[in-house]
Amino acid sequence: MKTSVNITLENFQQVIIHDSQQCLVMVEFWAEGYAPSQELAPVLARIATHYPDTLIHARVDCQSQPEIAQQFGIKGLPTVILVKEGQPLDGFAGPQTEAQIIELLNKHLPKVEDGLLEQAQELISHGDYQQAYTLVKQAHDLDDRRADIKLLLADCQVELGQLNQAKALMATIGLVDQDALYKSILGKIQLAEQAAESPEIIALQQELAADPDNLELKLKLAVQLHQANQVEEALELALSILIKDLNFGDAKKLTLDMINALPDGDPLKSKYRRKVYSLLY
């Protein structure tokens, strides 16, 4: 789809009605030889190149297309009107800086994080929390204030055994955003914590407390913790084995397998990979 088009009576229906269903149309009303119009035109054209898939820069020459200008009720130049789904949304009249125009557009253009969130939700609907995590983490890096992004990230974290990170993120959710998903995630956290208090884990913890240097007990406990989605605790325990004895049993393979199983973008993945590699090399 073209990022810039001149509107005439012939293509008016196509651009304003049809194309605006898929993209935001930035309609620029201008006139030849009018200085403010000539100054604004290259600014709008430059901005349009930054949004090739979501913005159309449509130009109306008010001298050759007076009917279109009249239909929009244009009273002065330059004037810019934003159109979406065939309806005027917003706009401005008179000179504007590039920053002001971009700020206006950002109110109506789809955000990158929205696309990432939509893809992540689709993956979650198929039970793929690992791939979803990577996308939601990217969305969170773009906007770490949005509650919907934080909740979806926390949900992924719980499913992937990152309970400490999930609990920290949940603590930042305001009362107004504590919806059904919020309560569901809290329930998942409680269940995960209960799983970490299984008789097998408690017994191993008690044995290890009595024999803290027993690497075999540590390895068994690390396996149990990982199975109970206590990933960070399992990694920390496995790393403590490698620090004592790099070649103890299956500790090296177990640790690397746990790290590799973490989703891309997970801070734990890079953190523990660095720690293990510092021991190996």
Question: What are the salient characteristics of this protein?
Answer:
Co-chaperone YbbN; Serine Threonine Protein Phosphatase 5, Tetratricopeptide repeat; five-stranded mixed sheet; single chain; elongated; alpha/beta; 3 domains; TPR-like_helical_dom_sf; protein-disulfide reductase activity
Write up what this structure looks like.
Helix content is 59%, strand content 11%. The protein has 281 residues and is of the alpha/beta class. The chain folds into 3 domains: 4-106, Glutaredoxin, CATH 3.40.30.10; 112-192, Tetratricopeptide repeat domain (Serine Threonine Protein Phosphatase 5, Tetratricopeptide repeat, Alpha Horseshoe); 199-280, Serine Threonine Protein Phosphatase 5, Tetratricopeptide repeat, CATH 1.25.40. It has a 5-stranded mixed beta sheet, sandwiched between helices. Strand 4 and strand 5 form a beta hairpin. The radius of gyration is 28 Å and the shape is elongated. It starts with a strand and ends with a helix.
